[in-house]
Amino acid sequence: MHKNYMDKNLKELREEKNLSIQELSLLAGIPVSHLLELENGECKDPYLDVLSKLMSSLKCNFEELYCAIQNS
Q: Which of 42, 35, 45, 46 is nearest to 13 (CA)?
């Protein structure tokens, strides 16, 4: 069964876009270390500028991205 976006985590969202963590880091201008913290659930409340950069890079909306971060 395919997960809907409410059930995806950040890593799944990134992989769905066929991006490595290094590629997303370059696209978003966010350090790999911070992306790993987000993907591993170590940071559940990123700054708005980080969310904005990720939304732009992953071509997703706020709700989809925020749910993915909370599910990580």
A: 35
